[in-house]
Every structure is written in structure tokens, then in C-alpha cells.
């Protein structure tokens, strides 16, 4: 039941409705303040598994399942940033456009000679370990694909 409502005031319905409304707003605020931030760390070398990670990240962002969604790609999954398959390209485009892709691993991109095309797509290249640590220290919960 509502706090700060004593039985004497129950005979005044306006007062009771006001208190219910105030407590509802506080409950709503607490609900959204307790939402977690998600970090999708996509390291899978299998294209299907990595693509699934992108799909889950996109849907989580679209439906506000977390207070924030970030994606880090490392390894073979970085190739998905350049994939032209319709479903994958749509997910990557959405995540880039809405600033959900934090970065791709700089060292893997160099090794696979993907640096220029990834940067051209608008994705930042950073050491993945450093970005992972920074986001986890910023209270992001890692979800690994």
C-alpha cells in the first residue's frame, strides 16, 4: 500500500489518488533507474553465431530492453561489418546509425587488412581488451556471442 497515507485521509479520494500517483511515479523511476547497460561482446568465428549476436543486440536496442546497448566486435566477427547479406547488413546499419557499435578490435582489423573498410563504415578501431575493461568498469554487463 502507499506510504504516507493514513486512514483518516481515506475519506478524501482526491488525496488518496494523488498519493497513489506519486508512489506510481516513484516506482516507475526506480524501475528505469535499475535497468542494466548491456555490452554485446561478439567474438564468435562462426558467421551464424556472430550474426545472431548482432540480431539480439539490435532487438535489445530497438525495444529498450536495457538502459543502453553497446557492441564490441573482435576476431572473425569483424568481417560482418562489411557483409552484404541483407539481414546482417540491416542489423549492422541500424547499430552503426544509432551509435550502438562501440568499436572493433584494432589489432585483428590490421591482421585481416580490414582497417580502411571498417573505418569507412564509421566504426572506431580500438584495442578490444581496453574497451571491454572500460565498459565493464562503467557498469555494462557483458553478453558474449
What does this structure look like?
With 145 residues, the chain is α/β, with parallel strands linked by helices. The chain has a single domain, classed as 3-Layer(aba) Sandwich (Hypothetical Protein Ychn, Chain: A), CATH 3.40.1260. 49% of the residues lie in helices and 17% in strands. The protein has a five-stranded parallel beta sheet, with helices on both faces. Helix 3 links the parallel strand 2 and strand 3. The radius of gyration is 22 Å and the shape is elongated.
Keywords for this entry:
145 residues; alpha/beta; Hypothetical Protein Ychn, Chain: A; five-stranded parallel beta sheet; 6 helices; 49% helix
The number of helical segments is 6
The shape, in one word, is elongated
Strand content: 15-25%
What is the name of the CATH class? Alpha Beta
The name of the CATH topology is Hypothetical Protein Ychn, Chain: A
How is the topology of this model organized?
Layout: H1 13-33, E1 37-42, H2 47-62, E2 68-73, H3 86-97, E3 101-105, H4 106-111, H5 115-120, E4 125-126, H6 128-137, E5 140-144
Parallel strand pairs: 1-2, 1-5, 2-3, 3-4
Helix pairs in contact: 2-3
Quick structural summary:
This protein is an alpha/beta fold and 145 residues long. The protein has helices at 13-33, 47-62, 86-97, 106-111, 115-120, 128-137, and strands spanning 37-42, 68-73, 101-105, 125-126, 140-144.
Amino acid at each position: 500500500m502507499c506510504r504516507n497515507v493514513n486512514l483518516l485521509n481515506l475519506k478524501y479520494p482526491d488525496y488518496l489518488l494523488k498519493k497513489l500517483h506519486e508512489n506510481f511515479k516513484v516506482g516507475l523511476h526506480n524501475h528505469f533507474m535499475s535497468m542494466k547497460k548491456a555490452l554485446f561482446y561478439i567474438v564468435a568465428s562462426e558467421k551464424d553465431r556472430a550474426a545472431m549476436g548482432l540480431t539480439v543486440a539490435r532487438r535489445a536496442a530497438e525495444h529498450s530492453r536495457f538502459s543502453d546497448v553497446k557492441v564490441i566486435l573482435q576476431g572473425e566477427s569483424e568481417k560482418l561489418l562489411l557483409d552484404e547479406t541483407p539481414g546482417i547488413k540491416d542489423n549492422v546499419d541500424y547499430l552503426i546509425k544509432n551509435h550502438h557499435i562501440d568499436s572493433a578490435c584494432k589489432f585483428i582489423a590490421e591482421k585481416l587488412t580490414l582497417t580502411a573498410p571498417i573505418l569507412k563504415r564509421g566504426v572506431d578501431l580500438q584495442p578490444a581488451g581496453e574497451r571491454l575493461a572500460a565498459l565493464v568498469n562503467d557498469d555494462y554487463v557483458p553478453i558474449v556471442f
